[in-house]
Amino acid sequence: MSSLALTLLYLLAAVLGVVACRLLRLPPMMGYLAAGILIGPHALALALNSEGVRHLGEFGVVFLMFTIGLEFSLPKLRAMRRLVFGLGLMQVLGSVLAFMGGLLLLSRWLGGVWEMDWQTALALAGTLAMSSTAIVVKLLTERAEVDTEHGRRVMGILLFQDLAVVPMLVLIPALGSSPEQLLTALALALVKAVVLVSVLLIGGQRVMRWWLTLVARRKSEELFMLNLLLITLGLAWLTELAGLSLALGAFIAGVLVSETPYHHQVGADIRPFHDVLLGLFFITVGMMLDWHILVEHWALVGLLLLAPLLLKAAIIFGLAHARGASAGVALRTGLYAAQAGEFGFVLLALMQTHQLIEPRLMNPVLAAMVLSMLATPFLIQYSPQIVSRLVASDWMQQSLQVTQIARRAINTSGHIVICGYGRCGQNLARLLELEGIAYLALDLDPDRVRQAAAAGNSVVFGDATRTQALRAAGLSRAAAVVVTTHEVPVALKVLVHLRNEAPQVPVIVRTQDDTHLEELRVAGAAEVVPEAIEGSLVLAGHALALVGVPLRRVVRLLQEQRNARYGLLRNYFHGLDETPTERDQERLASITLPEGAAALGQSPAALRLAPMGVQLVAVRRANGRTSGAQDEQALTGGDTLVLSGHPTALGLAEESLLRG
User: Would the pTM of this model clear 0.85, i.e. be above it?
Assistant: First the structure.
């Protein structure tokens, strides 16, 4: 097969595999692995695992490690140091020791089927100790569980595992040395790694910042990208030259770039190389899988699947519980991080390169790792049912949390429920306090809740994505709900609960940009406030004022832009406290259509209000959903129309809508 035909085959297999995984809501990695298995020499034999493709796959590992280094955050590491260097460190050490002992025992029991020395057992134990950062973080984000108790513990474990890959990349090549040279190789590898990492991280950060600044000043995207590739591959080559691995140099390059002001731009530039080449790496991994060996040794594959999965979950459960987590939180943490990970494939390929594992053992291990990753979405999906069955006290603890929320909200009505008490939530709470408006905030950070509650703030520990917590917070009696986190899955969950429990309560949602604006509005958000748009408006206001535009005109321009984007900010609802000068000004008015109203059966778009001097701003349906003036759905009893106009015109419009 020609090089072009082979390339097209790989691309076609990758596209089909990723599309299938997207439809099944699985990570793309699973699609690459499935594609490799299907076209590999042990299945359809459409392509051989050629050296050229394997080398491209190695570049995929290089860019994977560079991206991990780039996302490596020292401030985040310091903030989570208890979980990272406490729970994460003990998980890796405990798992490595347990797996190594189990593998050596398995070698003794199975004899000729499963034979390995302690070097192979140690390297394989480190491989099995890793979990899948890509899969777990994606699922945590989609389920809005990153900031939960178990979510933070899982993130701490995954962060330390990212760090633990580095010594494993140094250790495995040394373990592949001959027995008489093993100690010397280990000591030499350790010295090389310490010297190289120290030189690069101590003096390299300043050099990297200076060099990238120099390149950026040339204002050439091509030059910046070329330098980026040169740095990444150059440091990878340097570590390989020192007898270490390509991946270690790429990781160090990523860490160096992460400490510069250009790390966001670099992440965006490197992403296409990372995704495509990493996909090729996982295809080559899938091509190594021989299903004939799986059929012959299905019992061994099952053992290698279930034993590490259960053992790792048990280790994490015990460690998390011993460090203060409740039994339910500890078990959830164990279930989320029990699977094998993508770094395991990297380490397994490195073991094969240094002849630390035989091909007949490689395939059962590889198959078990792939199956454990495929099982992860289902384990996480059904984790609440598993926890409720195995931990009887978990229901009691959740009930206690709900009781504490209900106790705080029992005598409150007409209040604002704030979902998330970070900076945005706290600023909102301060403004509400100034106006004497009651609020109750729900947050999942125990330290923040403890400190804020001690300071007298109305905040309780609770998960706003759970119906029970929202009910306990007095949802049915609330005046409004504000979702202050910019995570769209959290907002969508809250909107679903409100649509079912209290559709009459309006919800205001914060987002980073307007990408999901329509989706949130359709889900029932009364208003969506994108940070990017608000930031651009403030920026424009400052710029206009600095170039000499009169302040009144700046304020008017910004208000017009906001009016165009936020329906609820067009004019104001007037009340009894209005002044004589305000009585003839344009205002907002809400008209709820009773049964028998003349407007029933017509769509908002068909209402002829403009000739009366009235504008339809928004429609809030009886089920809580908010729509615009161009909605084609017919009006029904209980729908509320928000109108804008002068008082006289509004009176005429109300008469027309109600009586015709």
Answer: no
